[in-house]
Design a protein that fits this description.
The structure is a single chain. With 127 residues, this protein is mainly beta. It is globular and about 30 Å long. It starts with 10 loop residues before the first strand and ends in an 8-residue tail after the last strand.
């Protein structure tokens, strides 16, 4: 389910790196998003988001769908299933309803979480 990730920067091979993608507030997308690098999401998505990099969902960001990523910081809201290879962080403004599969979880006071959470052992993940 998960993929091999290099620390700090998403890479497909040693010759190719990817810069961050930004979806600004006021942008609404219906459909799936797939990217290789990091992404900051401040708009509205109805669909799934898959990235090999880090996902940041800003204060104005809202996602209704499933998410797969390496690391994730949530300040906005998510309704769906989220699978995070390493660290999932809920900031104090986060609102989450759904199912979580993650390696590590951080929740700031004030964050809203309603659902289930399962943690996986990264050492047991196939490389």
């Amino acid at each position: 389910m998960f993929f091999e990730i290099k620390k700090n920067m998403a890479k497909v091979n040693s010759n190719e790196t990817f810069s961050a993608n930004i979806i600004n507030a006021g942008t609404a997308i219906k459909g799936d998003i797939e990217c290789q690098g990091d992404i900051r999401f401040d708009g509205f998505l109805t669909g799934n988001l898959i990235t090999k990099g880090k996902l940041v969902i800003g204060n104005n960001g809202e996602i209704k769908g499933d998410i797969v990523c390496a690391n994730c910081d949530i300040e906005g809201s998510v309704d769906g299933k989220i699978s995070v290879l390493d660290l999932l962080s809920f900031r104090s403004t986060a609102k989450f309803v759904g199912t979580i599969l993650t390696g590590r979880l951080s929740v700031e006071p004030g964050a809203y979480f309603n659902g289930t959470c399962n943690m996986h052992d990264k050492s047991a993940e196939p490389k």
